[in-house]
Amino acid sequence: xxxxxxxxxxxxxxxxxxxITSALPASVSVANTSVSxxxxxxxxxxxxxxxxxxxxxxxxxxxxxxxxxxxxxxxxSFTWPANHFVVAFSAVHHGFSLYHEILMGxxxxxxxxxxxxxxxxxxxHTVYFAPSNKYYATIYPQIxxxxxxxxxxxxxxxxxxxxxxxxxxxxxxxxxxxxxxxxCVYDFNDEFSWRFQxxxxxxxNYRFATGFDxxxxxxxxxxxxxxxxxxxxxxxxxxxGFSPFSFDLSVExxxxxxxxxxxxxxxxxxx
Length: 271
Description:
- The chain is mostly beta strands.
- It has one domain (2-268): Porin (Beta Barrel), CATH 2.40.160.60.
- The chain has one helix and 16 strands.
- The strands form two sheets. Strands 1-2-3-4-5-6-7-10-11-12-13-14-15-16 form a 14-stranded antiparallel beta barrel.
- Residues 1-20 have low confidence and may be disordered.
């Protein structure tokens, strides 16, 4: 049984982009180009773009990794704009009965007079190991920055687990990588934008990603992108808004592992 669990954990780790811990959901920003994306915020990604939210909203996200039930990730978040900052609570569940992770995050983001936005998130990460029949946990931060240089060009920076925290059990250890992300977005006009991002996990290779976002009209948008990390992975996405709801669907086709789908439903509350 221990060997089976160790194998599954190793397999899950290999399936995640840039080796980010498996509990984190992928972004609805195509090719996970989320670090500079202020239009499509996804929980547990760069917290700084959250500062642009002016309406309370509820997000529900489901990621089906390679059509394997045990690799599915469920996530929800609630965002509330306060007087001086935006606060959000997010939670994720990933795994199955013998091994699963629960990740909860509390986010604070603020826009400093449109000169830059800063976000800070505190994560409480728990892991259940069946051999010891116990939960183990740790706490670590995420820090994000978003800087507009003009109306068309913006850069974003995000660091996940900067101190390299791990979760150590009696028999097993869950390694949580330290990830540094840097990216930019250029808006050609209100309908068409381009994003580029690079991620660096301190013990692995760089990941490079790029994506295009085209808004057909106010309700409908289409995304197309690609990222390279050991393999070249093509991605596409579709979004549709029907107030107060909006729905996003992103698809990645890995040449070895197959299809990965991310679906997100968002509800915006009236104030």
